[in-house]
Amino acid sequence: MIAQQVINGLMLGGIYVLIAVAFTLAIGVLNFLNFSIPGTFMIGGMVSWAMLKVGWHWTFAFGGALLCAAFVGLLVYWLTYRPSRNSDSEVPLVSSLGFLVLVENIAIIYLGSDQQSFPQVIADFNMRVGPVVIGGAQLISLVVSLGVVLGLSIFLKRSNAGRRIRAIAENRDTAALLGVNVGALVPQLFVFNALFTALGGILFAISYLQVSPFMGESLGFKGVSAMIIGGMGSIWGAIIGGLLIGLVEVLSIQSLGSDFVNICVYGLLLLLLIIKPEGLLGKPAARDKL
Questions:
Q1: Across residues 131-160, what is the average pLDDT?
Q2: Tens of pLDDT along 209-244?
Q3: CATH number for the 2-289 domain, one of 1.10.3470, 3.40.50, 1.20.58, 1.10.287?
Q4: In Å, what is the CA distance from 184 to each residue of 161, 180, 264, 290?
Q5: What is the mean pLDDT of the chain?
Q6: Domains of the chain: which residue ranges?
Q7: What single string gives the DSSP state of each residue in the chain?
């Protein structure tokens, strides 16, 4: 049934929204495509799984996973972005990619390379709307994802801290002249980005009850695609792009089979780049959209 697949696609798209928004913040504010983001997504799922496995309550397990991700985000700032922030943009990008490989291999060494079953922390319940079945865990994940992103959008537009972030996105030197403490705010953005994506990893684990050291890779690439489709630098574009990719992925599985998923998703990205290179909500100066 097409309606059921649309619902499933929107549920999956909610996870992509979080990753796309994290990439949007990184490139929109810092002009830095942070490829460690899939690694912090994986940390959210794998660390919470490991803590639940040894008997921790889910609140402490999720909190511990978020703290680990925040620490890794700070390490990425200190060891990749800060030493090379005045270099060519490719230098911190490659360094962050090395961080992704590092955290994946640490997870393999200490937690194993196999896909693991995630314990069910939310009671199994379904909602029926006519013939359509909505999974309770997936619905909660979608609501949390969109709620967090909408809260972020309001924060960036209406709070003093949000205005300082947008000032850095406009021009870092001008923001510093206006009194913005750039040196303190940038590492906070790295920590926030790590928390954001680790939350996505936790929600994915809760929704689909599986984790692995490589869970962030494919979702990370699709998160980047969602950001580009929506328009680089646009939070609302990231929301639209994430939901759209979720829909395309699920509908392509139903119509063509799982072998055609990546062809459909990245084919959509290629088609959009040809027709509208700036993305659905983007403009030529896409970084100004924050």
A1: 86
A2: 999 999 998 888 899 999 999 988 788 888 999 999
A3: 1.10.3470
A4: 12, 9, 42, 20
A5: 87
A6: 2-289
A7: -HHHHHHHHHHHHHHHHHHHHHHHHHHHHH----TTHHHHHHHHHHHHHHHHHTT--HHHHHHHHHHHHHHHHHHHIIIIIHHHTTS-THHHHHHHHHHHHHHHHHHHHHH-SS-EEPP--S---EEEETTEEEEHHHHHHHHHHHHHHHHHHHHHHHSHHHHHHHHHHH-HHHHHHTT--HHHHHHHHHHHHHHHHHHHHHHHHHHH-EE-TTHHHHHHHHHHHHHHHH-TT-HHHHHHHHHHHHHHHHHHHHHH-GGGHHHHHHHHHHHHHHH-TT-SS--SSGGGG-
Please give the model's pTM, rounded to 2 decimal places: 0.89
State the amino acid at position 40 in one-letter form: T
Residue 167: both structure tokens together: 């000032």
Task: Quote the CA–CA distance of 266 and 262 in Å, as a whole number.
Answer: 6
* pLDDT per position as a tens digit, 10-21: 888 999 999 999
| Residue 48: predicted pLDDT | 96
100 pLDDT exceeds 70? yes
